């Protein structure tokens, strides 16, 4: 059973991502699963936050 979610608790998780591409969610699951987070949602958020607008 996952731990109870506490919105005031801060957890720091170090992940490596490159250029808006996220590896398989199976790689994220061991790190974010115990925190009660969805690996797919975290992967989508990482991709969105790291995407580039294109060549400038």
From TrEMBL:
Transmembrane segments: none annotated. GO terms for cellular component: cytosolic large ribosomal subunit. InterPro entries: Ribosomal_uL11 (IPR000911), Ribosomal_uL11_N (IPR020784), Ribosomal_uL11_N_sf (IPR036796). SUPFAM superfamilies: Ribosomal L11/L12e N-terminal domain. Keywords: Ribonucleoprotein, Ribosomal protein. Gene3D superfamilies: Ribosomal protein L11/L12, N-terminal domain (3.30.1550.10). This is Large ribosomal subunit protein uL11 N-terminal domain-containing protein.
């Amino acid at each position: 059973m996952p731990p109870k979610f506490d919105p005031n608790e801060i957890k720091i998780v170090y992940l490596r991502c490159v250029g808006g591409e996220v590896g398989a969610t199976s790689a994220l699951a061991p790190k974010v699963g115990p925190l009660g987070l969805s690996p797919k949602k975290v992967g989508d958020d990482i991709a969105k936050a790291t995407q580039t607008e294109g060549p400038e």
